[in-house]
Each structure stands twice: as structure tokens, then as C-alpha cells.
Amino acid sequence: MKQTKLSLWLASLCMVLFLFACAGSEGPEESGEKKEEPKAEESSGPVTKIDPATAATITGKVSFDGEKPKAIQIRMDAEAACATLHKEPVYAEQIALNDNKTLQYVFVYVKEGLGDKTFETSKEPVVLDQKGCIYHPHMIGLQTGQPLKVLNSDPTTHNIHPQPQNNREWNKSMSPGVSPLEQTFAREEVMIPVKCNVHPWMKSYIGVVKHPFFAITGKEGTFEIKGLPPGEYTIEAWHEKLGTTTQKVTVGAKETKTVDFTLKAGGAVS
Amino acid sequence: MIDGQTPNSPHGRVWLHRFVLLTTGFTFLLIIAGALVTGNEAGLAVPDWPLSYGALMPPMVGNIRYEHGHRMVATFVGFLTTVLAVWLWRRESRRRVRKWGFIALGTVIAQGVLGGLTVLFFLPTAISVSHACLAQAFFCIMVSLSLMTSPSWEDSADKRVPENRSAPLRWLSAVTASAIYFQLILGAALRHAKSGIVLHVLGALVVTVLVLVLVTRIFKQYAKYRVFVRLGSTLSLLLVGQLSLGVGSYLVRLAARDDIQPATVMVTITTAHVAVGALVLATSLILAIQSHRLLSPSLNIMPLSSAPQKVAP
Lengths: 270, 313
Hints:
Chain A is 10% helix and 40% strand.
């Protein structure tokens, strides 16, 4: 009798574990398939066409004020597949200071001033590559609903794991040679940290906004936001370590205005 | 039945006890493996569960080594616990011990499910902290089973001595063990939620005071009883080590706050802090169990001076 009870108990246990196994396993690869986010934020009106006859431009640069921060070397020695991909030391890009004391990887975007206007979403995918066990580029910008295409160019396995607060979180494995992964983000969010949990030094950021008026500073520390309708705007510069700063600017039809930012350690100044 | 011996034979009991000790040892290793996962930020290195990258054995690269290594040790502990539960159910004569075998099995299953859920839901603090706390609870169950199946457990049944009414050990040891478990919960919350350092420091103060009072009482009032003196000394030494590791963990965390990846020294010290914490808890639990087993309030009328000189071997 006791043995029968035990057998029943163990059979039930096996069934529960089997159900968990079926429910929990995602399978070896998720990449190659396009996953849609929940429906994008509802637009409140018709799509605003950018009129080349009146489109304004905002340009500028983001400077760094302060002592040059010490470069942080990434230790890849524990992962031979990554270490052998580099002949020179690799440094973290969290504060990428250019030679002209400007900053690379600052997300500059129109934070306020567009009201309820909606704009056509670009269908062009933005590529984020895992190459040399580093994300290339370190920072990208997307419109809501615009495809993000993730590649794995490395001879090793990665997982890609965005950690949003306002969008659906996901975590996908990508083995070497796997087909690209496509995802979208439904809601505006500045910024979404992206991490590879297999290689914890791999970090990236994705800025998601509802409009196409954003830019990321490059090796000269400059940015350019084109095609803006004339109006008064609040522009924000976002940096992962140095914080954010904003400036107000008014642009007229076909006008080009320069807005420069300065960021310093421990806080931001315009 | 081992080597033709019945489980109630001394030989059978010894083998059962050895098996419990083996399971307890692997449970301790499992706690260390879990701490390495957290320290190396490897909790989500394997996105799926219960399989790993859709397979039983994924490519063991980077942090997958820690996460999948943890899963492998956990699976082995689950297997050992299942064997133990069946062994106890079939061969153990004491109903209470049989029951604890099944409680251990239920706990290790719940722990596995919690571990899977925390991966599938991207490490929510509540589930991760519960996973850490249940690990310590399971370790306590295994330590208790190790005591209950030890050959000396039955032998000492008729050697109960009266508790010194002016220096009660039973309730104090139980309160101390409970406080240490609560302190481990606060530690897990600090580790996974990265907040609450003040509470954890206050908890450390409370635990230190309780252990000091407990150990002082042992050395003053129960110095004749080797079992209590040994446990009190071990608890004191472990606590000193644990407090040092706690300060060390805080300092290395502070120094590493701008690091791009977990530093080896930080992972080593914080993992040691988790492991020694488990040992402090286990020692306090053994002390509480032994106090309740070997000291009898019902015999309070007997003066301590007339009690046997040695309680347990």
C-alpha cells in the first residue's frame, strides 16, 4: 500500500516537472525570427510629413569638462574565444573621450516640443553587432516600432538581454553563425541598457523615441538632427555615466541652429 | 540495506548517516555555486529553463559555466535528496526522520522551481531572495538530518541533563539561530536588491550580541559539557570570520562600483561571506537542536553540579 502511494506521488512529481519543462524551455535558438512587441503606442493624429521646404536643423557638439577619466581595461582572459580576437588591450566605452575633449556616445534627442505630432516610422533596421565580444556600436537609437537587427559575428555564444523599464524585457541566446535576430520596441524609452550575461563586460544602450529627431555623437563629438518642423524644442543630451542635460531652442523654417552641451563628472552643465 | 545489513543495524545506520553527510556536503557546495552565479552576474547567462540553450549540456563558455555549473550541482543534490527520501522511507524506523526526508525532497523541488522561475522572469528581487533563503532553509534541513541520523543521536537519548534555570540555553540558542537566519534574509535582500545595508548592519549587531551572550553563558555555566563548548567555540570563530568578510564585502563592493565587470577579489570575498554565513547558521542550528535535546527543563530540580560530566561524545 505504502509503495503504491509512493509510486503515485513520484508519478505526480514527474508530471509536474514535465509540465514545467514544456512551459519553460525556449529551445536552443530564438534568432532568425521576427518577434513583434506589443502594439506600439497609439498615435493621436495623422502622420506628419516632413516638409523639405521648411525643415530646420539642429547641430552641435557635446564637450567634457574635467580630468580625463582613467580608461578601464576589459579583462577577457577568462574567455579564450574573446581574448584571441584582440591583439591590443580593449577598453570600456562608458566614457569615450575624443582627442578634442568631446564625448562619443551621447544620445541627443528632441525631448519636448513636438506635441502630439506623429511621424512615419523608419522600416530600415538598425544593426547591433556582437563582434570581438563587444557591442558595435556601443549605443544606438530607434524609433518605436523600428526594427532592431542583432548579429553575432563572434565565434562564441552570446545572449542579448535588454533591460527596459517601459517595454517588454527579453533575453535571447545567439550561438556562432546564427541568423540575425529582429525585434522592435513598442514604447518610448531613454535609455534601455543592453547586456550580455555570458560576457558581463558587454554593455550597450538603446534609445527609443517616437520620432526620428535624435542623433548619437561620434568621434568628433558632434551631432546633427535634421528635418525638424519649425518650432520651440527642448533638446536633451543623455550620457550613461555623466547624466543628462537639456537646452531649449527655437528654430524657424529652413533655419540651422547650433546647440552645444558640456557634461562633467558628477553632474551635467549646459 | 547496505552490505547485507539491516538499516537498524549499526552498519546500516553508519551508511545512511554517511549518505546524509554526503548530501549535506553537496548542498554546501551548491550554496557556494549559487553565490558564484550572483557574484559573477551570471544569473541570466542561460536564458531558458529547465534546459540550457535547449540542451542538457550547453557550450560551457563565459558565465554559462557558472549558471549551468550551478544547475548541474543542483540536479545532483536533487538526485541525492530523492535517493535519501526513498532510503529513509523504506528503511528508517523513526517516523519523524522519515517525514523530514520528504520535507527535504519537497524543499529541494520547490527550490529548483524557484531557480527556474527567477530565470524565466529575469531575476525579480522577490523570487531571487526567496531562492537564496530557501537554499539556507534546505541546508538547515540537511544539517538537522545529519544530526538525527548520526549514531550518537540515539546513544545520547538517555543522557539528558537539567538546564541551569539561571542560565537557560534552550531558548537563547533558538533565538540566536532564528536571528541568524533572519540576518541571512537581510543579506540576500541586500545582495539581490542592492539596498538595505543599514538593516543588514543592524542585524549583524544583534546577531553578534546574541552570540556573545550565548557563548559567554556556555563558557560560564556549561563549561563541563564538551558538546556545548565545542559548538560555542566554533560559532565564535565563524562569527569573527563572517564579520570580517562582511566588512570586506562592503569595501570591495564600494571599490568596484565603477568596474565594467565583476572583479575576482570581489566575487571571492562575497562568495566566502555567503558560504561562511551558511556555516554560522548551521552551527547555531546544531547548538539549538543539541540544547533542546540534551537539556531538560523538566529536570530543573536537579542542580547542575550533580549532572553528568559529559553529555555527548
